[in-house]
Amino acid sequence: MDFFRRKASNSNPYSNFSSSSSSSSSSSSSSSSSSSSSSSSSSSSSSSPSAAAGAGAGGSPSLGSRILQNVHVSAEKAITIPGRGRLDVRAPYMFQRAISSLGKPHIKTGQFSKLSNLQKFQKGYHAISFYQIVNGREQHMSTDQYERRAWEVGIAYNEFNIVRGSSSLISEKIAHWGVYVRPQGSQNNNRIYGMNWEGRYGSPLILEDVWGVPGQGKNGTWKRQLADNEFQKITDPNFRQVIMYFSLEEFVLEAQWILRQFTGQSIGELGEILCPNPGAAYSLGFANCQDFAKLVMNRLKEYNWTDSRRLSQPFSLSLLEKRMLYELQKEAERRPERNYRGAGPLLTDEK
Fold it and tell me: Mean pLDDT throughout 51-77?
């Protein structure tokens, strides 16, 4: 939830189109997702989705970035459970824009860079690569299809230390929110995904895969799998727990894609866009993580993920890629090339 709204500008705060871009309409986000390199992922860039972001000249962080990072750390200690900075908090699956084999000759001749963003889509030069984290390293997802199953899905909240012990109504509102998923009928296998700030993995904004469990005082632990009694669920009747049908890979990648859309959509009468916080304190007033959690729930319902007939077909990475590329092309068609930067991210690794 460490985010703030700022006026749209020509600067692109995203370093890549990856897990932090995370996360299926043309309003655009991920995935905080959002956050991986492979020799086959792209001929246009040798950098990994986990390349460092926020560096100044010579690759070292700027003074402003260091100051903001210190402010963020101080705020984090006052608000939430310490120790998150020592963990790999990324969600286990991610995606990155790559260049298809069709585009390689144009890259070698230098002609590829002269094409407009829309022309690249029209000529079929864009592709998307999918990755999973194995022992802390990003690897290509080698299987195209994944079996779906029934999951219980809802919204969890983690109250901040400053209101811990208050009434449930206050604790719910002044809290970090995430979407929990667990296999139907299970009480001890919950995983909670929320958007949060993290600059170590190539973008300030990621889809997070850990959840703080309070302990004595302001202490506690961070977990990837939780029992039902280790976290709290919001009481809003509009977001009650529901049964949905998907594979875990499908859920995480879809959430990354929704995250990408969420962080690129326009908000407010002044034309503000939601941008990831480069390191300042939590923005309690905007409750961005709460808006994102509600968006994920609503979007998946709109996509009919509650329909049990989804079990008759597996989740397919190739079909997801096809849909992503279609939606990205529609974005490119609506955006004049000259207004690309100021309108928010389209392809977040595009230089």
Answer: 47
